[in-house]
C-alpha cells in the first residue's frame, strides 16, 4: 500500500514546553521479569535525556487518548489532556517510506509475530527469506508490543512497535514504521485504546 510522506497534516501542537515529571527516570526502564520474554533493566545513562519517557507540558487541540507522532523531532506524545502528555523518543521511517496524517489503532498485540510486507520483500532479499513469518520474541524486529495503524477499516501496514535495536531510537532508518524502546512501547500499549486516533506529522517539503 502506498502512502505519501506528505500526507494531510492535522492539528500541529499549539505549544510545547519542557516542564517534566519528577518520577525518577531509571524507574521507567527497570527490569520487567514477568514479561513472556523478560526484559533487563536499561541503564538510564544509555538513553539520551531527550529520548527518555517523561511527562511534559503539551498544549494541543487533540483530545486525551490521542497519539501524536512528531516525525521531524523523533518524538511521540500520548495526550493526557489538561495541557499534559507522555513524551517518548522514537525511531522513524527512511525518507519516502513514512506514513503521514491521520490513522487509528486497529488492533494491538503482545510479543507479535512479524511478516515483511510484499513491498519490503520486493525491495530487499533478506525480507523475502522471512515470507513465512517470524514468531514473536527477543529477536523479532517488532519487539515487545505492536500497535497496528488502520484507515477506513484497512490495515495501513504501518505500526508503532518495540525494537531489538534500541540504538535506532532517534534515527530515521526503519522501513516506515514507528519504533520505540521496548519499555516505552509497553507503557504506550497499556495506555492507548483500540480505536484511538493517531496523528503522524511529517516535515513539509
TrEMBL record:
Gene Ontology MF term list: glycosyltransferase activity; peptidoglycan L,D-transpeptidase activity
Source organism superkingdom: Bacteria
InterPro entries for the chain: LD-transpeptidase, LD_TPept_cat_dom, Transpep_catalytic_dom
Protein name: Lipoprotein-anchoring transpeptidase ErfK/SrfK
Domain (L,D-TPase catalytic): residue spans on this chain: 65-201
Family per record: Belongs to the YkuD family.
Annotated signal sequence range: 1-25
GO biological process: cell wall organization; peptidoglycan-protein cross-linking; regulation of cell shape
Active-site residues annotated for this sequence: 161 (proton donor/acceptor), 177 (nucleophile)
Cross-referenced Pfam families: YkuD
Pathway assigned to this chain's UniProt record: Cell wall biogenesis; peptidoglycan biosynthesis
Any one Gene Ontology cellular component term annotated for this protein: extracellular region
UniProt entry keywords in alphabetical sequence: Cell shape, Cell wall biogenesis/degradation, Glycosyltransferase, Hydrolase, Lipoprotein, Peptidoglycan synthesis, Signal, Transferase
Amino acid at each position: 500500500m502506498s502512502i505519501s510522506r506528505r500526507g494531510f497534516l492535522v492539528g500541529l501542537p499549539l505549544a510545547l514546553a519542557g516542564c517534566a515529571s519528577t518520577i525518577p527516570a531509571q524507574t521507567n526502564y527497570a527490569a520487567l521479569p514477568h514479561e513472556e520474554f523478560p526484559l533487563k533493566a536499561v541503564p538510564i545513562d544509555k538513553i539520551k535525556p531527550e529520548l527518555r519517557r517523561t511527562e511534559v507540558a503539551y498544549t494541543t487541540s487533540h483530545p486525551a487518548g490521542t497519539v501524536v507522532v512528531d516525525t521531524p523531532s523523533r518524538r511521540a506524545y500520548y495526550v493526557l489532556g489538561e495541557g499534559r502528555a507522555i513524551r517518548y523518543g522514537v525511531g522513524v521511517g527512511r525518507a519516502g517510506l513514512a506514513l503521514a496524517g491521520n490513522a487509528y489503532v486497529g488492533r494491538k498485540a503482545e510479543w507479535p509475530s512479524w511478516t515483511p510486507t510484499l513491498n519490503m520483500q520486493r525491495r530487499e532479499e533478506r525480507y523475502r527469506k522471512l515470507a513465512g513469518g517470524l514468531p514473536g520474541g527477543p529477536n523479532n524486529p517488532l519487539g515487545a508490543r505492536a500497535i497496528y495503524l488502520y484507515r477506513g477499516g484497512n490495515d495501513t501496514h504501518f505500526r508503532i512497535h518495540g525494537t531489538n535495536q534500541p540504538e535506532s531510537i532517534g534515527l530515521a532508518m526503519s522501513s516506515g514504521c514507528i519504533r520505540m524502546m521496548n519499555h516505552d512501547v509497553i507503557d504506550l500499549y497499556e495506555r492507548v485504546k483500540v480505536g484511538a486516533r493517531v496523528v503522524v506529522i511529517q516535515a513539509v517539503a
